[in-house]
Design goal:
Layout lengths: L1 H14 L2 H37 L6 H14 L3 H18 L5 H15 L3 H17 L3 H20 L12
Helix pairs in contact: 1-2, 2-3, 3-4, 3-5, 4-5, 5-6, 5-7, 6-7
Length: 170
């Protein structure tokens, strides 16, 4: 993935494709974050998002913000990750772009669990993710949300009153 993103950045730079260059920067930051460099990668993602916005494009913003949220979570910055998800959900409401809507709810559930939030709030996020994915007939997103929710329930059952869970992002 890193090679593909590097190629995207190189081609976009050479041909002055500003929006694709911004996308490449965001994706490069995300790839680096999942490769163990989350703290340094958040800034690169934020710069890419700012560059994306500077092109005047608004499409894909919920997706870009979700990638930022994942990097923030990997950098142990769950409250900020949750704020990025909230911003993405606001974009969804304003724009009507719903292709990543279910995944936003799943990630919200992951971050809430990580923070030790109320069980009802965590479960509502997972239920919303599953419901939205099923309504959209996004079977892979439904399976992903169901799997993360099952892992949350498993960890909750084996925990002895502890708060906070470490659920998989992917």
């Amino acid at each position: 993935m890193e090679r593909c993103v590097s190629d995207l950045i190189e081609l976009s730079t050479r041909h002055h494709f500003e929006s694709w260059l911004a996308a490449g920067e965001i994706l490069h930051g995300w790839v680096r974050s999942v490769s163990g460099h989350a703290t340094a990668s958040v800034l690169r993602i934020e710069e890419g998002i700012n560059d994306w916005r500077a092109t005047g494009l608004t499409v894909c913003m919920p997706f870009w913000l979700a990638l930022k949220a994942e990097a923030l979570s990997l950098a142990n910055r769950a409250p900020e990750a949750l704020a990025a998800i909230k911003e993405a959900e606001e974009w969804v409401e304003r724009s009507g772009e719903r292709c990543y809507h279910a995944e936003l709810h799943r990630l919200r559930g992951v971050f809430l669990a990580d923070l030790g939030a109320e069980e009802t709030e965590i479960e509502a996020s997972f239920h919303n993710a599953i419901r939205i994915a099923n309504e959209q007939k996004a079977h892979s997103l439904a399976k992903r949300a169901e799997g993360t929710y099952a892992e949350y329930r498993r960890q909750k059952a084996s925990a002895s009153g502890g708060r906070g869970f470490r659920l998989p992002l992917f």
